[in-house]
Amino acid sequence: QSVLTQPPSASGTPGQRVTISCSGGSSNIGSNTVNWYQQLPGAAPKLLIYDNNQRPSGVPARFSGSKSGTSASLAISGLQSEDEADYYCAAWDDSLNGVVFGAGTKQTVL
Amino acid sequence: QVQLVQSGAEVKKPGASVKVSCKATGYSFTGYYMHWVRQAPGQGLEWMGRINPNSGDTNYAQKFQARVTMTRDTSITTAYMELIRLRSDDTAVYYCVRAVPYTNGLDVWGQGTTVTVSS
């Protein structure tokens, strides 16, 4: 069981706006920033969002992140076929003194 | 360019040890924490620990505390992760990953090293 809770799957049609949720607790999301990763099939993960809502250079603006309390969300606006991937949230956990990941959400583009 | 290049695939027997290397190029090695993350076949990401390449200080996930050692050699800008007493459920792809300064955002990933534990 992962410390951070994500839905196992999500789906949307091209052009749609989709969101993926990530729920945690006071020792992780509640007191630290959230990062999001995208993993395309057969590839290493890629940093998509860091510090809750910051995009590394090269990440399209249609990816955005937000955080409120002990939950966070990743939004994809204008969903594209190449966005079909696994998405993971992560945060530092003060109680565990380490990084915790969500179990991942498989995003499907219909 | 910024790059992390890991050592090649390993096949080990249960009870053996494995040491994976991660050569960093294109940036100041001692200025960024290095993390290790693994992914078992068909499973999610699992954080193993991190090392401060400047000081050598480490943080390990509780699950691996007794079996993992992370080190570095600043003269050759290389980080290492050694896992002992291997079990079949240690079969996974192991990644070294650089962290964005002052955050735990992991921005540069190695290509991954497949470790297979089988008798």
**What is the helical fraction of chain B, as a range of percent?**
under 10%
Overall shape of chain A: it is globular
Low-confidence stretches of chain B: none
Order of helices and strands of chain A: EEEEEEEEE
What distinguishing features does this structure have?
heterodimer; A: 110 residues; mainly beta; 6-stranded mixed sheet; 3-stranded antiparallel sheet; 9 strands; 45% strand; globular; B: 119 residues; 7-stranded mixed sheet; 4-stranded antiparallel sheet; 0% helix
Task: Please tell me about this protein's structure.
The complex is a heterodimer of chains A (110) and B (119). Chain A has 110 residues and is mainly β. Helices cover 0% and strands 45% of the residues of chain A. Chain A has no helices and 9 strands. In chain A, the strands form 2 sheets. In chain A, strands 1, 3, 4, 7, 8 and 9 form a 6-stranded mixed β-sheet that branches. In chain A, strands 2-6-5 form a 3-stranded antiparallel β-sheet, with no helix packed on it. In chain A, β3 and β4 form a beta hairpin. The model of chain A has no long low-confidence stretch (mean pLDDT 96). In chain B, the strands form 2 sheets. In chain B, strands 2, 4, 5, 6, 9, 10 and 11 form a 7-stranded mixed β-sheet that branches. In chain B, strands 1-3-8-7 form a 4-stranded antiparallel β-sheet, with no helix packed on it. Chain B starts with a strand and ends with a strand. The mean pLDDT of chain B is 97. The interface between A and B is medium-sized, with 28 and 23 residues.
